[in-house]
Amino acid sequence: MKIAMIFGTRPEAIKMAPLYKKLKEENMEVKVIATAQHREMLDQVLNLFEIKPDYDLNIMTKNQTLPQLTSKLVTEIDKILKIEPFDYILVQGDTTSTFVGSLAAFYNKIFVGHVEAGLRTNDIYNPFPEEMNRRLTGTIAKHHFASTQKAKDNLLKEGVEEKNIIVTGNTVIDALLWVKENKNKDIEKIKEKYNIKNKKFILVTMHRRENWGKPIENVMKAIKRYLHENEEMHIVFPVHLNPIVRESVYKILGNEEKAILIDPVEYLEFIALMDESHYIMTDSGGIQEEAPTLGKPTLVLRETTERPEAIEAGTAKLIGTQEEQVYQAMKELETEKYAQMSKASNPFGDGKASQRIVEFLKKRYYS
Ligand code: UD1
Ligand code: UDP
User: The UDP-N-acetylglucosamine 2-epimerase domain covers which part of the protein (predicted)?
Assistant: First the structure.
C-alpha cells in the first residue's frame, strides 16, 4: 500500500512527524506532500524531525485568504495525485490543508485516514474555520483515528460506523515524549540561552481567527495591567507570524519591558519554555494537549473548547477573552488554585498513538 501524508502547518507537522517515523520504521511505503500553508513555521518542524518532503507545494503567501488558499491547494494537490497513484491518504486535524487534502483525495477516489478525528465544539464558527474543516474531513474519511473516547462518541453520534473509529491517543504526546527523550540536553541549553532559569514568567500564545482584533487586544490589555501590578512576573510570548496577529500584540505590549515578545521558536525550544514557565495562557489547540503532560496550569483564551478533557482533568480553565475576566483568572492563579491546577495528567495519550495507527493500517491492509 502506497501512503501519502498531506500536511502544511506547524501543528500538523508536529503531530504527523512521529507517525511518519513509525511508518518508515515498519518499512511501509510513505511519502510526504507538504502544502507549505506555513513556510518558516513548517520548516522549523521538518528540520527538527529530519523530514524531507517528497513534494513541496510552497503555497504560502503573506496574508493569504481562505478562498485563495483553498482553491490553490485543491488544484496543486490534485496534480500530484494524478502524477503518482497513492492508495491511501493520511491527513491530521482541522486546517485548510487537512480539509482540502481530503477533498482532493476524494476527487481521486482514494481512501482517507483522519488523524485526531472527532473533535467538536458544535459551533461552526468557533473555532473558525477549524470546526467546519474537521467535520468536512470527517465526512470524507474512511478511517477515524480519535484521540479520546469523547472524540469517538462524537463520531458515533454523527453516524460513523464503529468499526472505522480507532481510539489511539493523540500523536502530539508521541512527539512531546520523543523530543523529551531524545533531545533532553538541548532543552537544558535552551533554558540557559533565554536566561529564563531565574525568571518567573507566563508563557503566552494567541493566533486564532475568531480572536483577531478586539479579543486579542482585550487579552493583551489584561496582561499589561497584570504585569504593571506584579513586580516579579514576566511574560514570554512567541508571536505567530501572521501579520494581523502581530499588529495587535505589538501595539499593546511592544514597549513593555517585562513582556518578552519573540518570533515563533522551534518545537524543542517551545517545550523548554513550557517546562520552565509558571503557567500558560493560550488559544492554541496543541498546547492545550501538551500542557497537562507537563503539569502546567493553562488558561484557555477562547469561548469554547473541543478539548474538554484537560478542563475535566483540572489542569486547564476556559476563561474567554474579556479583559476583566482574563485579569481575574490571572489573579486567581496567585491562590491555592495554582497548586490544584499543577497536577500532571495525560488525558490525551500515552505516547503510543502512532504505533496504534500503524498497527491498524497493517492489520486492515496486510493481513
Ligand atoms: C493556520 C490554521 C489554524 C492553525 C494554525 C496553526 C487554517 C485556516 N488555519 O492558521 O487552524 O491553528 O495555522 O498555527 O488552516 N505566516 C508566515 N509564516 C509562516 C506561517 C504563517 O508568514 O510560517 C503568515 C502569512 O502571512 C500567512 C498568515 O501567517 O498568510 C496566515 O497563515 P494561515 O496558514 O492562513 O493561517 P494561520 O492563522 O497560521
Ligand atoms: N509551538 C512551537 N513553537 C512556538 C509555539 C508553539 O513549536 O513558538 C508548538 C506547540 O508546542 C504545539 C504547536 O506548536 O505543539 C501548536 O501550534 P499552533 O498553536 O500554531 O496551532 P494549533 O494547535 O492551535 O492548531
Answer: 22-362
Q: How many domains does the chain have?
A: 2
* DSSP-assigned beta bridge partners for residue 29: 2
The whole-angstrom separation of Cα 364 and Cα 106 is: 20
The pLDDT tens digits of the residues spanning 40-92 come to 999 999 999 999 999 999 999 999 999 999 999 999 999 999 999 999 999 99
205 plus 321 within the same structural domain: yes
Q: Judge whether residue 367 has pLDDT over 70.
A: no
Task: Name all contacts of 71-75 with Cβ < 8 Å and 24+ positions apart.
Answer: 73/35, 73/37, 73/97, 73/100, 73/101, 73/104, 74/100, 74/103, 74/104, 74/107
- The 10 Å CB-count burial string (b at 16+, else e) for 81-98 is beeeebebbbbbbbbbbb
Among protein residues, the one whose CA lies closest to atom 6 of ligand 2: 270
Whether 176 maps to a domain, the answer reads no
- The preferred substitution site among 92, 180, 270 for testing ligand 2, maximizing ligand atoms within 8 Å of CB, is 270
Question: Considering the domain boundaries, does residue 177 fall inside one?
Answer: no
Residue of the CA atom closest to atom 17 of ligand 1: 241
Q: Which atom of ligand 2 is nearest to the CA of 12?
A: 25
Is residue 347 domain-resident? no
| Residue range of the domain that includes 328 | 184-342
Phi, psi of 283, rounded to the nearest 5 degrees: -115, 10
Q: Are residues 94 and 201 in the same domain?
A: no
C-alpha cell at 171: 500523536
In a domain, 270, yes or no: yes
Q: Are residues 265 and 336 in the same domain?
A: yes
